Each structure stands twice: as structure tokens, then as C-alpha cells.
Amino acid sequence: MTGNQHPAGQSVESTEQDVRAKLPRRGLLFGGAAAGLGALAAAGAQLAGAAPQDGTPAAQPADTVHGGGTVPFYGTRQAGITTAAQAHGVFVALDLRPGTTRAGIRALLRLLSDDAANLTAGRPALADSEAELAQVPALLTVTFGFGPGLVAAVDPARSPAWLQPLPAFTVDRLQPGFSDGDLLLQICADDPVTVAHAQRMLLKDSRSFATVRWIQTGFRRSYGSEKPGTTMRNLFGQVDGTTNPAPDSAEHERVVWGGGDIPAWTENGTSVVIRRIAMNLDKWDEVDRVAREESMGRRLSNGAPLTGTQEHDEPDFAAVSKLGFPVISDVSHLRRARPEDGSQRIFRRAYNYDAAPGSGGISDSGLIFVSYQADVERQFIPIQRRLDEMDMLNQWTTPVGSAVFAIPPGCREGGFIGEGLFA
Amino acid sequence: MTGNQHPAGQSVESTEQDVRAKLPRRGLLFGGAAAGLGALAAAGAQLAGAAPQDGTPAAQPADTVHGGGTVPFYGTRQAGITTAAQAHGVFVALDLRPGTTRAGIRALLRLLSDDAANLTAGRPALADSEAELAQVPALLTVTFGFGPGLVAAVDPARSPAWLQPLPAFTVDRLQPGFSDGDLLLQICADDPVTVAHAQRMLLKDSRSFATVRWIQTGFRRSYGSEKPGTTMRNLFGQVDGTTNPAPDSAEHERVVWGGGDIPAWTENGTSVVIRRIAMNLDKWDEVDRVAREESMGRRLSNGAPLTGTQEHDEPDFAAVSKLGFPVISDVSHLRRARPEDGSQRIFRRAYNYDAAPGSGGISDSGLIFVSYQADVERQFIPIQRRLDEMDMLNQWTTPVGSAVFAIPPGCREGGFIGEGLFA
């Protein structure tokens, strides 16, 4: 395809075309072509003005306004995973309405895929009632995940073995209102208005087929407020995610997209575990910096292991203090989370949450823990089992929600997310 | 003062100093000096590196990372009003604990003023338990407002006449959980982590004296995602706030800071009305673009009045269509909100909200309507009365929260917000 084609034109009704024709041209970005599959997976962002409709470089100087940036929706793999985490993320779990047929699910997925393709390119969704709000894509990505119920409703024989709720952990205090679900919509962008609008459009087109089970809204540092590549901090102030495999690494490829013995429709897909981790800031307040660093095994200042000076220094678990105690405690989070073997790796892409506190409280804060891995059973669960057995951080954190979804592969223009499951 | 003094140094305990000494220097910005009063009121932002400790221009090139930007806290007037609206805003209303004395309120205000001075300068708050989170001020402002209860507890004789709940309007469906309160903390910044951290620190230092009555979290377009100066859109997609008096105008000065017959302690102060306006997106969806524009009296595309082509064109209320009907309907929001006389003007600084929907719904969205005016009774209420009587927009909007606060003047270094009330 070339840049001046309308990727989803065939599914857009003429009335909608009319509305679009009246919109200012700014923001009507045409996500630049199919590109190589690897390039799509890497989700390199393109900025407004850099790829005008005729495909030639823009004559005008690059716009410093960042809201025009887009991430291609179509590709072998879904965007929003390898994509550098945007500042805002909302995670919506839907339950299929009772009696929704296989054909209904297919129609829903086609509709939502078209909406996602349009919105991520800075175009209005189908029958977008607030079309102007679509004009600032701000690196919007929409990532779909399938819960056990959706796969079972379409073709139960082809469910990956790991697609089920996690085993119960002793630390869990799970609330149904933050757990499970049939269909995940992960909506991320560098602008909160963009996220709100995309969420509204996708839910509007879902409501004949599904109801909202839960919504979790999260945030990280805003676009450009810190140097790119700075590891996020959670609301405990900890550097959070240091050991994540770099998106362009072979390790990342193996951890997230490693496949293995999986149903064909999940090839170039992965899995996501979303756990809502309440962080007790009041109790955390009672702990001084030394004890905080001990519990984590890392320095608060820059995330370095207690045996090192830089964030990415390898921890030395053999190092002992003058008194003979390990410098990094055996029950620190760093030590306990460390894989026993190299296959127990995950790729994290977490968001902070800060909800209104309940009566008498002053905060309801925590982490929307989001982890991608090719195989939940083989990669995620062993780590979580170890942390469940012993992790000093458990004193201040409580999992209150948990959900597992299969992330289907991406799709080509004209296709829809999950089509392989219907093949 | 010079740039290398510590504005709140005298109130900082030595243990806290020790913690600060261990922090990396980056982000420990020293908000540049007292400056002219008008300049402070205009709240011009200064960027990290632009005003180093010795007061000379930074040698290093300007940092493109925006998180180091600060807005001075100390000044004749409080920041966060004339300050260009940051992307994120949280509004917290506190209730004083029963029996809190005048001395207690004074201690609370001093403590919170010190915290605000530190946090807005990119420094940790007193005993900041997540000190590293304070290093990205991102144009943080903290603005304090006093409810009727606080003023009555200190000196009831000096309460401005307008400091009371608004009269009941027929459109109101007010919830106590979004209404009234003794002390307002308005926390705004261009980074949501910054807002969350400041909120936590201020509430932590409040809790001996006060409890949380309500918290409303809102957002606008993110920093830099649109051209600076773009009028915000609300979640109905409407351009919202076109007629706001420009912050550097004489009109703004009169509307917001106009004073008049007021108690001396409120000089260089103003008032704020915060109303939570639920916007029924499901019902709004049923309305086509023509009817939407008619209800507003403005075009959706760019906010121009229906008699004009550009956002800031003066509306022509006398213009009629070929059929003899007014082009701008007499019951449009634009027509009804228009002041009958020039004194009925307000300065708006609204934020969108998008909360998790209740059971069966797909959205709980609306506007945190925030309006500053020198005199609530004279400026705000007449407008709201007219809108209450008739405004086409009322079909889709419902006020669910309402609160009025007096905004005291700013303070100098060493002082605290509201000190005049205790004089």
C-alpha cells in the first residue's frame, strides 16, 4: 500500500466520510504503510509531518508538538508491548454478554480492530461522535487480549494450556472487580484525553456484545518530563523494571515472543498477566531508607544493587558485609525475583495507579503490574511462587486483582485481531 | 533573597537535610527569587538549568526535558490560577477534624505551605519518604482555598459575604461526596507522578488535623501534545473556554483579582467555584453534529460562533437565517452564558474527568468546572442563574458536586498561606 490509501476505507460508511471531509486536515495522519514486519513489531513511532500523504518527506520543519505521533496498528505482532511505554494506560476487561455467539464475537473483534486502526492513526473511529478528539493520537496503541471465556466461546480446543486464572497465592486478596475477564482492551497513549476518547469509542462499539467487568487507569512519568529511557519509579519511590530485557534484544524476543508448543493461531502472539498490587504507603512510611533498600536489595537513589553503584550493575549475591551477612539479603525482592533458570523471565510494562481513598484513608495507591511472556506457566508462575513464599516487599504490598489473557498476533489491513482463532 | 538560599531552610529538620544531601543534585532546583509581584502573578515558568544557584544563566544548553520546570510558590498572589493550566490537576477537599483549634489550623497551614514551597521547587517535602519522586516538579503548583468552615473556625467575623455554598439550582443533583469542604488543595502539574506524590505528601502532613472529604482528579491534553495556547476541548468534543479573559489582560486582572469591598486578609486573593459536571455521553451520542452545534452556539470544528469562522470571532446575536430564525439560538449555551453586564465575568480553568463507570455503564465522564472570580455573588451566581433557567446543554449535563472556597493571597518566604487571617 502507499501512504495515501485509506487503510480501512472499505468499512467506513459514507456519512462518516462526510464528517471526516469537514475536519481540518491536521491530525488526519495516514499511518505510513505496511513496512517490514520486524519494524512494525519494534513499533517505531513516526511524527506528524514526517510522513505526509504523498510519502515524501515533509517540506515544513519538524513539528515539536508531539501529539501527532503514531504507532502502526497493522503488523505481524500487536503494538503496545514492545512499544516504549506511553505515559498513560487504561486496561479494560470486558465480559461477553450471555449468549454472544461465535459470529457475534467475530463481528465485535472486526469492529474494534477497525476502530483501533483508525484511532491509532489519528483518524476518527467509525461513527466517531467526538471526531475532533481523535486528532491527537499521541502514540496511541490499542492491544487486545483474549481471556479463557472468549477462547472457549470460539474454539475451546485451541486454548493455550496456560490460559486460565493463576493458581491461588497466599499473599492474594483478590477482588472479582479487578480480576479475570473475557476480552482485554489495553489502551495506551502519551495524552490522557486521547486515552479517554479511545476508551469511549471502543466501549461504545462493544456494548451490544459485552459489558465492562473492570477498568484500571494508570500513569507513568509524562511524555518528555524525564530523559527517554529512564526506568520508571513506582509510588514507593523504587526504580521499577531495571532487569527488563531490552526491546531490541534477542532476550526480549525469546521472553515475549518465544512461542514454543502453542496453537497455531497464537504464533506471533504472547500472554499478559495483569495484577493490581495495592501498595500500603502508610505502612511503608514507617520504614527508613536503609530498611527500604534492604527489602528491595537495591538503592533508592538510582536503583543500583546494594553491591553496585549503577542501576544496571550485576548484583553480587555472594558479597558479605564485615559482619558476615549477605549484602543483598536472601529475602530481598531482588534476590527472590531473580530466576533460578534463564527461562523464568518476563517483560514488564507496569503503570502506577492512585485512586480516591476510602473513608478515613488518605491514599489508595499501587501498581498495575503488567507482564508479558510467551508462556505464563513456564515463565511467570515460578517467579510468583518464589515471591509468594518469601519476599520482604510482601509486608507492604497486596495483590488485589489478577487476570491472564492471550495476546493474539497482529493483523494485516482488512483483517482483524484474532482472526486466526476463527480459521 | 538570592538563588542559593534555602527558602524553607529554617523549618527543615537536620535528619531531612541529611537525606537531601544524599540525593543527586539533579532536580534540586532553587526557585528563582522573589521577583516582581506582577511577574509572580503571571507565573512565568522557569526551566531547569535556566536559573542555577548562582543566578547566572546556565552554561549547559537548555534541557529539552520539561520535567525540571518550576513555578515560584512565594509571591503576592498564589500560583495555579493565572498559571497556564497544566495537564494534570487534582482537587482535594479536607474537613477539619472536630475540635481542631485555631492554633492547629495555623500549624497545618504553615506545614502545608512549607511542603508546597519545597515540592513546587523540585525539592522533597518535609520528611519526604519518597524524596526521589520530588525531583521532577513539571511546573507543579499547589493552591490553597479556605471553605466557610475553616474561616469560621479562625475568625468568623472576617468571612467574605460570598463564602458559602451556592444557592440551590434546579439542575443540581449534588452529592455530599463531591461538595463543600473546609480546606482545598489544588495540585496541578504536567506530570501525573508529580501530582500523585505531592498529593500524598500534603495529605500525610494534613492527617492529624483533617480528613479527606473528596478528591477529584482531572486531566487536559498532555504537555506539548498540542500547540501552546490551544483552547481545551471537553469530552463532548467542544472547544471549552474560548471567552476566558487572557491571563495578561486588564480584564483578567479585574475579573480574578478585582477585590472590591473585601476583608483585608483577602486582598490579592480571589475565590474559586468547583463544580463537578457529569456529562451524559450516551445521551449526547444521540445528537447529530448540527444539533450539537446549535445547542452550543459554536462550531465543533474550531469553536467559532455559528455566525463566524474563527474561534475568537465575536458572536452576532442579531444575525438571522433566511427563514428568519436567529443563527445563534436564544437558548444556546453561548447566548445564555453571555453576561448581561460586563461585571458578570469569570475565569475558567477546567479539567476533564473520566471515572470508572458504575454497573452496566460504559462511562462516568464529565468536567471539573473550576472558575475563579473576585466575587462569587456578583460574578458567578448571575451567570449560573441564567444557565439554570435555560440552557440547551442542560439536557446532557448534570452538576453533581459544588464547592466554594476563598483563595487567600500568596505569602513571602518564611510566611504561610492564610497568615493574614490570623493577624
TrEMBL record, chains A, B:
Pfam families referenced in this protein's UniProt entry, alphabetically: Dyp_perox_C, Dyp_perox_N
An MF annotation (GO) of this entry: heme binding
EC number from the UniProt entry: 1.11.1.19
Ranges for domain Dyp-type peroxidase N-terminal: 78-220
Dyp-type peroxidase C-terminal domain residues: 232-411
GO cellular component term, pick one: cytosol
Keywords: Heme, Iron, Metal-binding, Oxidoreductase, Peroxidase, Signal
InterPro entries documented for this protein: Dimeric_a/b-barrel, Dyp_perox_C, Dyp_perox_N, Dyp_peroxidase, TAT_signal
Cofactor(s) the protein requires to work: heme b
Family: Belongs to the DyP-type peroxidase family.
Name listed for the protein in its UniProt record: Dye decolorizing peroxidase
Organism listed in the record: Pseudarthrobacter oxydans
